[in-house]
Fold each of these.
Amino acid sequence: MSDFVRVAVLGDVPMGTALKVTVNNRAIALVNCAEGVFAISDVCSHADVSLSEGEVIDCTIECWLHGSQFNLRTGLPLTPPAISAVPTYEVRLVDDAGTTHIEVATSPTPVSTDGRPQS
Ligand code: FES
């Protein structure tokens, strides 16, 4: 079971946007879309590019440099040129004194041999 760390308040990440945060010296993109708030490594698997600077499209995030779109639940690329998944992290929303806080797991979600996160 992962530990969680509080990284932002929900209002910091408006719907349809991404925010870069740092957890244990790892850059993570928080993404708020219609299906919830997700945390995915901020580093594209194709090159060292910040995914949080990309565009949120239908609950995916599109790398701004070459256009690969990544599934926010699995980290898997949906379009080339990226071919490898980026790590994902569990997210939980915690209400505290009337404010909704975003907490992220300190370790990435384990993946199985086919690269998909294990539940
Ligand atoms: S750097 Fe992200 S798709 Fe090329």
Amino acid sequence: MSSLMGSAVIDLVPFHVAVGVIYALNGIVILGLAWMFHSPRFHAWHIRAPMPMRVTKAQYYWNILPNLALSTVVTTGAIYGLSPWTLTAEPTAWWMILLQGFGVLVVYDFSYYFLHRLFHVKAFYPLVHLVHHRVRFPRAQDSLYQSPIELIAGVGLLMLVVWVVGPIHWVAFAGLFLIYSTLHIFIHSGMLFPHKLFGREVFWVLNQLTLKHHKHHLNKHGHNFAGVTPIPDLVFGTAA
Ligand SMILES: [Zn+2]
């Protein structure tokens, strides 16, 4: 039954448009944040002084550019290839769509927490995750600097969770995929947004998430493993 429901997603133009818009937004966010970081106008927003990586420019781009291509291929392949088992276009109540999107993000957040902790286990760390941690002070573009294995594992885990929780409505997937992908870029931005409204920080939540991930990269390798919310780290006593 689910494979029949899922096949409808492929025939749905708004679904393809949504995927395209999310990819475009990710491109705009990564380029925009990278430009902001390097523009003198926003230097005051930097979390700390730059820490140059100990890799050549050629080595750096030979990581992030193939990863950009791999990420696009793997993500597109996973979204479309697995859609008969993960996504549906069946009429679904709005509250159920919200619940599905929220549910996947919560399950993913806890699952990724354990994957990330596993990456930091001494025996595994040099094999995969060490590459991403060559970045001590990340900028938006450094969100791509990682082992291809880590990239595939991250996307694979998200799709596994969608499959386990799902099939979910494609709108729920579009919403959670937008949050998942842009947040991954934002928490690596290296900047805190100082905007205030009525004396309160407008981007307080985002700034806290960025700061937590910044600490993880800088020197707190045993803390702040989760990628979406601080909840798994708070539950398991690894929040910093
Ligand atoms: Zn890590």
